[in-house]
Amino acid sequence: MKLLLATSLLAASIATPAWAGKAHEHGAAKIDIAVEPGRLVISLESPLDGLLGFERAPRSAAEKRAVESMVATLKAADTLFRVDPAAQCSLGPVTLTSAPLKLGDAKATADDGHGDLDADFEFACKSSPAFVEVGLFKAFPRLARLEVQTATAKGQRKQVLVRPALRVDLAR
Prior knowledge:
- Residues 1-22 have low confidence and may be disordered.
- The protein is globular and about 45 Å long.
- The longest helix has 15 residues, at 61-75.
- A hairpin with a 2-residue loop joins strand 1 and strand 2.
- It is built from six helices and nine strands.
- By secondary structure, it is of the alpha+beta class.
- Strands 4-5-2-1-7-8 form a six-stranded mixed β-sheet, with helices on both faces. A three-stranded antiparallel β-sheet has the order 3-6-9.
């Protein structure tokens, strides 16, 4: 519940009309990063196409293996997101939600051919991290752009990471 509250507050506090109205876009994903005392929360929203190459329930054995591989990669968030080692962060809960893949608490919706995945990653940290290196481009070659929003004690910021960039500075 705390994670949901933190993510909701982050989205509400830094969402702007330009971000709120964006359509589902292949090759792009959104990341929200919130730094609070003692923890770091990263939320990912991505069309399944950028992660899997399809946006529906898997139909073949190969597609089922691709889903299993994607889930394993995302659950290993401490390798997917390299958090500033000086902050001494350790991975906590990882929550994955996708209606087409029947992950999490997602409710089945009308199939419009545009399935998404939402993921929340929580890290417990001894101090505030100065940066996060995002390994999504390497893990998911179909992704080309990440829209990143950050909220830290030093303020809020938006930036866009385009392949091959991977570093999000949090200390500004």
